[in-house]
Write a structure and sequence with these properties.
The chain is an alpha+beta fold. The chain has one domain: Beta Barrel (L,D-transpeptidase catalytic domain-like). It contains four helices and nine strands; from the N terminus they run ααβββββββαβαβ.
Length: 208
């Protein structure tokens, strides 16, 4: 890997870190749900995805999304691939993944019209201005998320993703399968991800 830390060293640094490497203080919510440390298995899959696409990614930052955690938890992990620092943020999942609006991902799907979140490796693509303002397109690189572009799965901000929503409802609202983030932190997240970086999302375990 073209990284300062070895794969094993990076994995250890990420798993040992707390809610570190924060975004600028002005952008961070005043309240955050408990951060969720991604499992070693999930991190290993994300690093394997990074290695399996040589030349496809800018290798300074990646995002790892832990869909085993509830939507009330800070489960969107921005990982600094140089020093292992992690910023953990709220992210919504698709309504098709949680039809009962329980706050937990029940299923992942790549099917058009499913409104569900999908598992796998994504490469960030171009910025555009849409109904959610400045947003970031992503391309699915695996059979489990190959329809991401045709489904218009993107990274965008949403009113239903916030510390206040967690306070009031104990969970976030749901997207149409997109990675919907708190509008307050979106500009900094988009600037750090930019074009050509890895987002890896999966659900390793199973919730009853």
């Amino acid at each position: 890997m073209n990284l300062r830390l070895s794969r094993r060293g990076l994995l250890g640094a990420v798993l040992a870190s707390g809610a570190s490497a924060a975004l600028p203080a002005t952008a961070m919510p005043t309240f955050m749900a408990a951060p969720v440390q991604p499992s070693a298995a999930l991190m290993a899959r994300a690093l394997a995805a990074l290695e399996s696409h040589p030349g496809d990614f800018v290798r300074d930052v990646m995002a790892v999304v832990d869909f085993d955690a509830p939507s009330a938890a800070a489960r969107f992990n921005l990982v600094n691939l140089v020093d292992g620092g992690v910023t953990r943020l709220l992210v919504a999942h698709g309504r098709g993944s949680d039809p009962d609006q329980s706050g937990w991902v029940r299923r992942l799907s790549n099917d058009p019209g499913s409104a569900a979140s999908s598992a796998g490796a994504y490469r960030t693509d171009s910025f555009y201005i849409g109904k959610h303002g400045r947003s970031l397109r992503v391309a699915g690189l695996d059979p489990t998320n190959s329809n991401a572009e045709s489904r218009e799965i993107v990274v965008h901000g949403a009113w239903y993703v916030s510390d206040q929503m967690v306070r009031n409802r104990g969970k976030l609202g749901r997207s149409e399968g997109c990675f919907a983030l708190d509008e307050a932190v979106l500009p900094e997240v988009l600037d750090r991800l930019g074009q050509g970086r890895l987002i890896f999302a999966d659900r390793i375990g199973a919730q009853a």
